Amino acid sequence: MAEFSWLPRSPLEHVLVVGFYGARDVAPGVSLTEIGNFDLIQVMARRGKGAELANAAKARFGMAAPDVPKAVSASDVTLIWSGPDQFLVLSKGGKHAMDILSQAFSQSASLSDQSHARALISVSGTKACAMLAKLSSLDLHPASFPIGAAAATSIDHTSVNLWRGNDRPDGRAVFNLLVFATFAESLWRTMLDAAAEYGVDIGHSEELG
Amino acid sequence: MISSQSHRLASGGLIDRSAPLNFRFDGKTFAGFQGDTLASALIANGVKLVGRSFKYHRPRGILTSGSEEPNALVELRTGARREPNTKATTAELYDGLEAASQNRWPSLRHDLMAVNQLFSPIFVAGFYYKTFMWPAKFWEAIYEPAIRRAAGLGRTAGVADPDHYDKAWAHCDVLIAGSGPAGLAAALAAGRSGARVILCEEDFALGGRLLSDGGTIDGMPAAEWVSRTLAELASLPDVRIMNRTTLFGVYDGGTYGAIERVNDHLPSPPEHQVRQRLWRIVAKRSIVAAGAIERPIVFAGNDTPGVIMASAMRTYVARYAATPARRIALFINNEDGWRTVETALGAGLQIAAVIDARPDVSATHRALAAKAGFAVLNGSVVGVEGGKDGVRKISISLTGGARAEVEADGLAVSGGWNPAVGLTSYHRGRPKWQDDISAFVPDSAPAGMVAAGAANGAFGLGACLRQGFAAGAAAAHSASHSGNAGAPPIADDEAFSLTPLWHVAGKGKAFVDYQHDVTAADIELAQREGFESVEHLKRYTTLGMATDQGKTSNVAGLAIMAAVSGKSIPETGTTIYRPPYVPVAIGAFAGHHRDENFHATRLTPSHHWAAEQRAVFVDTGLWKRAQWYPRAGEKDWLESVTREVKAVRGGVGFCDVSTLGKIDAHGPDAGAFLDRVYINTFSSLAVGKARYGLMLREDGMVYDDGTTSRLAEDHYFLTTTTAKAGPVMQHLEFCRQVLFPHLDVQLTSVSDQWAQFSIAGPKTRDLLREIVDPAEDLSNEGFPFMGAREVSLRGGIKARLFRISFSGEMAFEISVPARYGDALVRNLMLAGKPFGVTPYGTEALGVMRIEKGHVAGPELNGTTTAADLGLGKMMSTKKDFIGRVMAGREALVAPDRQVVVGIKPTDRARRLRSGAHIIPKGETPGPDNDQGYVTSVCFSPTLDQWIGLALVERGRERIGEIVHAHDPLRGESYDVELCNPVFYDPDGGRQRG
Fold first, then answer.
1. Chain B contacts of A157, Cβ < 8 Å?
2. Do domains B165-291+434-478 and B305-414 have the same CATH topology?
3. Which of A11, A146, B827, B976 has the most other CB atoms within 10 Å of its CB?
């Protein structure tokens, strides 16, 4: 009997090379970091159960789920608005995985596991906004897109969820992108192309930003 | 040997004399300085002749110093970077620049095509239409190619552009076009008020006319004010100054287009940098401070090299310390032209004469003339003597009728100024006529846009500063920024008086549109022939249709039309203004989206494994799919595909089907919802079962198909075709949100969540038993045909198994969360090794579905009904569903519809091709007896011959009939037999076994 290994493989595994890319004569202006394995659950209120879901979410996460385009974070989870009466639950380590959340929201919501459907890319650095301006039509100026702002938008004609996380310790803004897995490699190349002139620091992390 | 800069002043100018540059023009090496344009460097080297005109190949020199230039067009750079029709007046000089004149043969000085001038009587307005009418078939073969060779502009590189371009978005409260006094004052006011400001300047240097004309602002020289202002703007965090950037268009919702020439000033872009960047700027308010364009006067010989705009003369002398001429005559009709006298005298140049068309010239000017020793003549220029080497002598008709002649090597002309109204008119706004400056000024600009300064008809420096500052403060305020804008900059206003003069009658060609060789006579001819409307005038004569879009010619052209048609200029009106303001490279619009990045691509979870197996990939929509897996020694695709099919039919194979659309439908009403969108019933489907479903469009035609499984009481899992995955999801969301909002159902795309493989062949169960947990019952009883449930795999992960078959074999589809897809495919190879497992691609998949008579994209083509596909019995009569009523229309249930049927060639050795038309045997092919067409064909390894599916009139009633397949596209004609579309295992025993 053959021995089977079931190592998960990120949709970016083939294309992501940790290290530097692009212009070398400057300090890297853009950091691109793939966040590894995560749990991502789409939660959608059942018909007329929006208020019930809101209560259940507050009980489960200790904070209100966003009802406008925002992302809210606690120590172990981020809730990202994805539409009226629906949000994404992003977490690590199985604490808010499908089977557990199914229990919590069994009365109020329909759940769909998206953990393998997306890749999560975090963008930061002095030139993060300049680089994202090539990909996104959104105004990412801090006055328009402050910490916690979120959008269901598109990059390269492809749907993405974009939200601004907490600033890095050095004060730099962090933008998180959830991209569809089958598009991830193609979008990654597009992002590298957009960032190359600023110099890119490519990394991989198992921690949510 | 590098020519000396014979026409460079010893000092002055905004050039960097410590940075000498060498460049080549038409193979000859010249020297210039950092800060030069190609035009200023050519002038500094005494080059007068720079190009040949479009139609008559007349020698031409440099007319202007900006992006309005109609004459000085060159091919810039060489090889793959060769760029035709580049304006020498805006091309920044760099070391090693290579440029060549265009539209001449064999050389610029000796252009044989100048013979065209002899035939100028036949090249008048509308000559295309008059001369080449007969015979019609000569047009494409002879006339057009000949004309294209003779008349034209530069040559494209002819090979792919090696440079990279990109596109970006920017956002601001206040967008400003132009960095002259009005633009800088606007930026200052808006920036101080706290607004987010973007200022675009097409020049590489900031300051606009201040760079050439100087002046005093706030008591300091203009240059000092500019540098102080730029320093202050740089200190404001939300003010962004973009030089080398032309705002070229305004679009809906406050969106603007701009082109940034990021690295056009270098031989090639530094590594990783782009050549140009296309900006889409979203602005709450915009201020057009784009200045004005000086207009020529139309007189005989006005295109002689050495005739130059008066403002351009000042720019070359003051900004570039380059002298277009040493003894200059001026022909003007306005006060502004006299500034050129001051500039020229200040630089030590000689003034030959000032020909002022106005009757009264001020005493100050007369005193200056007396002191400097030149004549002031009241009259008009009626002729220019000169040619390739420039102007020699100027003939003047003096007021009162006398003639005069003046010797000069340059003639500077000013007919007044036209505000740059382009941006303000791009939303069909028509500029209005303003009498005191005899020019059109902006009117009815797009929402949120105002013009300021010279662009608004305010020509005095003080007025430019006041208007710009006020516009900047107002724009910031209306964008909710009300910080202290401080005091506006102050300067005096120069007098501006003008007597309109458009055209001086005389002998010889008098050019209106230099770039398209349109003369005053052409306009008069157009009027005589009835092309009097300005839009007709434009198309008939091609006035204003060249790459300069008539920036120097349009207003003069319509003024001449007004004169000959006896109307006023405002009555004559302007043509419609359209973007772009300057030509924009297609490459900039394409940006990153070229070659392999033309569009985003989607990769299946097994893609990189398949690439390791050297699979051949095919583009299906955005997907890359493995088409077949060639093996060493196989001579063509057919051999590989045939092997794959035989391996599946005789053993076991697998195929990545992750590209199918996958949708979770949750909620207590999910079944009821599916009943409405599919023609068959899903609410009755048992948990743990799968069912094939077909959905129609509202019009009754088939939309899509796929299998849907019920995984829980309130959870269905739908699959769609690869092609329709997106549209079906949209359709279902529309149904859910708009048509059936009362149903409690939630939909989520899970297409990317699951890696899904079809495993098919008689040994499928043997393979699965290797990989599935032994506790799972895979027997026919424990997992019957159309079963669907979650199972455990050896090694711990969960998978979903669906016992469905597209190939007609015993088959399962297995799906795992997508990140395990790569592991699954490798494990399938491992588990299947004892059984000779064979990966197969989309070609083998297609062969097997045709053998089995399953319909796919070619049959689900938007023109077929369920009954056409042989699936009419699936249409439930016990419920309503989308498309039900319209599917009952007379024509859609007519007995003579074309329906799916199988075909086999009567000659077993013949190859079939899809697209052939079906006609009755013995009939002549034609639309009257066209009975259908072949939709899908393949070589069937199982039947050892080509087979196909076709849509044929009454096909099912005609099984066994021999008909004719007619393929005019490929010149083929042959007989085929109509047969049962299910060629393989018609009773379905294999898939149920």
1. 599-600
2. yes
3. A11
